[in-house]
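name: query_chain
kind: protein
chains: 1
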Amino acid sequence: MDRQDEKEQMGVRLRRIEGQIRGIQRMIEQDRDCEAIVTQLMAARAALDRASLYVMTHHIERCLLDPDGRTNRTQLERMMAFFLRLSGGTPVVAAEETTGEADEVGGAT
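structure:
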């Protein structure tokens, strides 16, 4: 699938989600049952999650490359943390970030 097809596919997804949100707004205006509204909110959230994963899986290579075409390690770590956050997991924090000190694994003896 080329870049233009990916954009069109994403546009279709987002317009569908936009329609879901408008439908939820109408439900609220019509004083619909809370359970029905929450069910539709959960469906919209799931659709947004799927759209996020679509973007991530179709654009990950472009997101991870630096201007020289090499994999950018910092971007890779950010992307992994983002995937974990998106999936509801908690990113693992490196020892350096929690203690302010560099990890000594493999250091001088």
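note: Residues 94-109 have pLDDT under 50 and may be disordered.
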